[in-house]
Amino acid sequence: MTLKLTRRATLKGMLAGTAAFATIGLLPAWAQQKGGTLTVGLTYEIDTMNVYSTGFLGDAQAAVVEGLLAPDKDAKYVPVLATEVPTIENGGIVVSEDGKTMKITYKLRPGVTWHDGKPFTSADVKYTWEAVKDEKFIAESKDGSAEVASIDTPDELTAVVNYNTILPTFASTLFTFGIFPKHLLEGTDLNTSSYNETPVGTGPFKVTEFQRGQYVVTERYDGYWKKAENGDALPYLDKLIFKMIPDTNTLITQLKSGEVNLVVQTPYSQAKQVEGIDDIELIKGPLLSWQHLDFNFKRPSLADIAVRKAIAAGIDRNVLIKAQGGFPEAIKSPVVPVFEFYDPNTPEVAYDPAAAAKLLDDAGYVVGADGIRAKGDEKLSYTFMVQAGRADDELAQQVIIAQLKAIGIEATADNKTGVAYREARYNGGYDLIYGRWITSADPVYSVFWGTGGANNGQSYSNPTLDAAFQKFENTLDPAVRKDAAIEFQKILAEELPTISLTTNVALIAKTKKLKNFVPNPTNMTNFVDTAAWYME
Amino acid sequence: MVDSTIEAIATTPPQSYGRRALKRFLKRPMAVLGLAFLVLLALIVIFGPLISPYSFDGQDFSLIGSPGPMTAEHWLGTDELGRDALTRLIYGGRVSLAVGLAGAIISTLVGTVVGAFAGFYRGWTDTLLMRFTDVMLSIPTLPLVLLLSGLFRPGPVLLVAIVGTLIWMGTARLVRSQFMALREREFVEAARALGAGGFRLMFRHILPTAIGPITVAATLAVGSAIMLESALSFLGFGIQPPVPTWGNLLNSASSWLSVAPWLAIPPGLCILFTVLSVNFLGDGLRDALEPKE
Amino acid sequence: MSLGYIVRRLLGAIPLLFGISLILFTIVHLAPGGPLDVYVDNPSVSKEALDQIAKAYGLDQPVPVQYVLWLKSMLVGDWGYSIRTGRPVLSEIVLRLGPTMELGGLALLLSLLIAIPLGIISASRRGSKLDGTLTLVSFAGISTPVFWLALLLQLLFSVHLGWLPSAGYKSIGDGSFPDRLAHIVMPAAVLSLATIASWSRFIRSGMVDVLNQDYIRTAYAKGRGERGVVFFHALRNALIPAVTVIAVDFGTVISGAVITETVFAWPGIGRLFMESMDGRDYPMLMGLMMMGSVGIIVANIVADLTYAALDPRIRYG
């Protein structure tokens, strides 16, 4: 599903886009050095190390706990504790004869041990599903657990997952987040277990110290299963430390003083300062996230395609990008370019305020004495909502308000927070809304613009679009999915229920000494693959 | 009427009180300086935005992206949205001062009414009101304000109301003690003997006599309210952009501190000097209005 | 001061705390939205999932019922469970209380050690240039935004001079006394700034009042070799009004801790409060506010007792 529950809160601060401008050296075979400590600065406080109950993306967790699969730097799933990604071709996925259910077989990696030395087996996989599904376990993320009917474990290294439906997005849920150690957790209360502070995983690093409100220390796990291509034992780093520093100014100060040497979410506004620090380089990491402006179709003028087109033509993405430090990139489709489903031929409305004005003139919206257009009683004066307190969103909002003013449209900030925001968004308590979504590597889009979609507060309904979503989301056939994706992107771009504005990027400030660091665009964070990182 | 002559005698302090207070006040150079600064500041924030060629939210698209330097066009540079920093500073001063004044007025009103009733009626009224005051005094202020503004996301008006309704307790205690002392005095007795009712006694007879300490408390409350707003803004719970206040200007500029110190230093200094002036003024007023004789 | 008096004061605090809890609970539960707010951005969370979580935390009960349940857990239990971490509120708070006590305690100590001499010097040289300067400095101290000062100090001492760590409670793998001292210096200095400034003012004015009294003047005029004794006596009397102020300022320290701990990444209850604000962790917020209120009430009782100890004329029976 789109955007993990658990993986939500950090998105607040998260910024986004594509392409790294710092060169990421490709493995000079001689240079990898063992040892060293990397200190990471986080702006949030780690609530729990349990990947299924954390309210954040799970940076530290990803270095410790592994799942069967993980998305790589291109948002493609690669095997981790499994030996291959199940597909129809390799026989890993078998669809039932009636086409309504499926069965997925994972072959598990042999020789993997938990941090306590015990072997990892299929029983752990089965237990993970049972534990997450358990009603008593209060988790923020149970996605994908309800769709599983049962799990068979014919042998220690085979897990057969029987689904009660077709779930094309299976890889982005349950077993990808992490596997629980059955031998340690069975029979314990997961809500209060010490596992939540010092989890035992199979990852390259094991937790040695958890200090609430301060830091988490992880040290290299000598029994880690993965080897480098040249045969080196992994991981290279001795220690990976996660420090929690809530104030971003302080965080940047710590970068300057060398007390922290990796920050994965540098605010745009701090980028200039970071660029001035010796030994620190700034990397632009892509994110599966985009910024968008949506319309409420209950407003007659916003249900008018001419007005929506004019607004699209009236917004200069370059100014928006500049306001955010020049880091995001312009997009025309909600399917961000890193996805293979992205269609580069999606039509787009170019920035042209004169054309916007003409569109509105032609549609009969004339400029009034106060500079605001109106047609009859319908004045082009809108309430404009973003989530209050998000500096980056409020910044973008101010830019958009200024640009709309230039084409005779008045937008007034009406920002809300909390449930007030949530309710307004779901019930259409706005005229214009600006926001940013982040998705998993395998997103669905019908929740946003499908008729009655969970996040469709716009009262937008288009049967053709619904059909395209339906095709996209209910098949495992890549060719069919690709066609459907092209279709719905075209409809969205022409009908404009939403204007896709820019990508978001993660600004990563890292010490130049850290090598082999590869940004990960997904909600599984950059720490999903830490084994090969080394310090020069 | 006889009543009014007595009243005049009862409420009007000796003619020389005002002049003597003024004389005492003028002897405090820092207080005079503080007052002068505040008057000047008031003039600037009232008329500055009218003179400025820029509006507080007017963006220069060509300058957007990062703070602009100090130039002849933009004396204090521009912020990351290409807005004139000086204009925003002055306009922010207007908002901050308004928050300070309104907060002080609300807290003084609430505090005076609560204190007056408690001190005048004593007994159950006193017990009830003072227990309530104790309750409010026992809740840590900043966390409570944060809780309220975090949960309700108030606009500027509601925020001022919240600030004002949370700093009145000191005034209430002060007014109560004044009223307790004054209600037994001869001039009150005299007015009472002539049939003045409770409200009349409280607000026509006693209150004017207690006005000195109340003025001092009100003055100092302006400073508290400004500081409270800036702390809220720093923690992200203050007045929301694009409306500038010194607090949120300081907060947003602090991320540019080492790149564009000209944005972060002025709002900090403005808060510092304004609150400093308010404190000196309050101190001077205390000496002038409540001489220890 | 008798034991009976202390007991009566403590009993008197009970209705006070009850009133506080009612007010806080009402505020928290009248607010639009709730702890489930944190799911606001998640496009995939279903209503059923939300309902289930709400049920797990008792959020589906009527508010009065929730209040009774909460009160019960405050009195005999673990103060409820944190929605953010799932752990008992009481143990989370206890965990964070230590660092705050250290920071607050050092800040109070610093305030006393600096404010008393400053106040005395100012008072004894009333009207001098030194007095004027100290007055200016202490007023400036009250008037400086704490977070701004903290930022400037960090830049100076951590980045430019490199003398002190910019934030945190201790170094990882260290935690020796010098290491912790290095970490606590800046936050404690920042936290004590406002109290130093205001207390030195109160001590100054208290001293001025006492020094002006006839018996002191007489003692001075006689010029006997007991000046020290007299001065000490004056100081004792001057401290009496100051004690009340110090107790009231306990609340200021708590408020200051919220900001200071955030800026300096200090793992105390002030920061826990801010984290809980972000997560709309109602049980935790309630617990923390009650905790702070108890602190202020206790500080006031202690102040009254100190008052009695300093002033032999006051006897609480």
From TrEMBL, chain B:
<dbReference type="InterPro" id="IPR050366">
    <property type="entry name" value="BP-dependent_transpt_permease"/>
</dbReference>
<keyword id="KW-0812">Transmembrane</keyword>
<dbReference type="InterPro" id="IPR035906">
    <property type="entry name" value="MetI-like_sf"/>
</dbReference>
<keyword id="KW-0472">Membrane</keyword>
<feature type="transmembrane region" description="Helical">
    <location>
        <begin position="132"/>
        <end position="151"/>
    </location>
</feature>
<dbReference type="InterPro" id="IPR025966">
    <property type="entry name" value="OppC_N"/>
</dbReference>
<dbReference type="Pfam" id="PF00528">
    <property type="entry name" value="BPD_transp_1"/>
</dbReference>
<feature type="transmembrane region" description="Helical">
    <location>
        <begin position="157"/>
        <end position="175"/>
    </location>
</feature>
<dbReference type="GO" id="GO:0005886">
    <property type="term" value="C:plasma membrane"/>
</dbReference>
<keyword id="KW-1133">Transmembrane helix</keyword>
<feature type="domain" description="ABC transmembrane type-1">
    <location>
        <begin position="93"/>
        <end position="282"/>
    </location>
</feature>
<feature type="transmembrane region" description="Helical">
    <location>
        <begin position="259"/>
        <end position="282"/>
    </location>
</feature>
<protein>
    <submittedName>
        <fullName>Peptide ABC transporter permease</fullName>
    </submittedName>
</protein>
<feature type="transmembrane region" description="Helical">
    <location>
        <begin position="97"/>
        <end position="120"/>
    </location>
</feature>
<dbReference type="Pfam" id="PF12911">
    <property type="entry name" value="OppC_N"/>
</dbReference>
<comment type="similarity">
    <text>Belongs to the binding-protein-dependent transport system permease family.</text>
</comment>
<dbReference type="InterPro" id="IPR000515">
    <property type="entry name" value="MetI-like"/>
</dbReference>
<keyword id="KW-0813">Transport</keyword>
<feature type="transmembrane region" description="Helical">
    <location>
        <begin position="30"/>
        <end position="51"/>
    </location>
</feature>
<keyword id="KW-1003">Cell membrane</keyword>
<feature type="transmembrane region" description="Helical">
    <location>
        <begin position="210"/>
        <end position="239"/>
    </location>
</feature>
<dbReference type="GO" id="GO:0055085">
    <property type="term" value="P:transmembrane transport"/>
</dbReference>
UniProtKB/TrEMBL annotation, chain C:
<feature type="transmembrane region" description="Helical">
    <location>
        <begin position="181"/>
        <end position="199"/>
    </location>
</feature>
<dbReference type="InterPro" id="IPR035906">
    <property type="entry name" value="MetI-like_sf"/>
</dbReference>
<feature type="transmembrane region" description="Helical">
    <location>
        <begin position="12"/>
        <end position="31"/>
    </location>
</feature>
<dbReference type="GO" id="GO:0005886">
    <property type="term" value="C:plasma membrane"/>
</dbReference>
<feature type="transmembrane region" description="Helical">
    <location>
        <begin position="239"/>
        <end position="266"/>
    </location>
</feature>
<keyword id="KW-1133">Transmembrane helix</keyword>
<dbReference type="InterPro" id="IPR045621">
    <property type="entry name" value="BPD_transp_1_N"/>
</dbReference>
<dbReference type="Pfam" id="PF00528">
    <property type="entry name" value="BPD_transp_1"/>
</dbReference>
<feature type="transmembrane region" description="Helical">
    <location>
        <begin position="286"/>
        <end position="310"/>
    </location>
</feature>
<dbReference type="GO" id="GO:0071916">
    <property type="term" value="F:dipeptide transmembrane transporter activity"/>
</dbReference>
<feature type="domain" description="ABC transmembrane type-1">
    <location>
        <begin position="97"/>
        <end position="307"/>
    </location>
</feature>
<protein>
    <submittedName>
        <fullName>Diguanylate cyclase</fullName>
    </submittedName>
</protein>
<feature type="transmembrane region" description="Helical">
    <location>
        <begin position="136"/>
        <end position="161"/>
    </location>
</feature>
<feature type="transmembrane region" description="Helical">
    <location>
        <begin position="103"/>
        <end position="124"/>
    </location>
</feature>
<dbReference type="InterPro" id="IPR000515">
    <property type="entry name" value="MetI-like"/>
</dbReference>
<keyword id="KW-0472">Membrane</keyword>
<keyword id="KW-1003">Cell membrane</keyword>
<comment type="similarity">
    <text>Belongs to the binding-protein-dependent transport system permease family.</text>
</comment>
<keyword id="KW-0813">Transport</keyword>
<dbReference type="Pfam" id="PF19300">
    <property type="entry name" value="BPD_transp_1_N"/>
</dbReference>
<keyword id="KW-0812">Transmembrane</keyword>
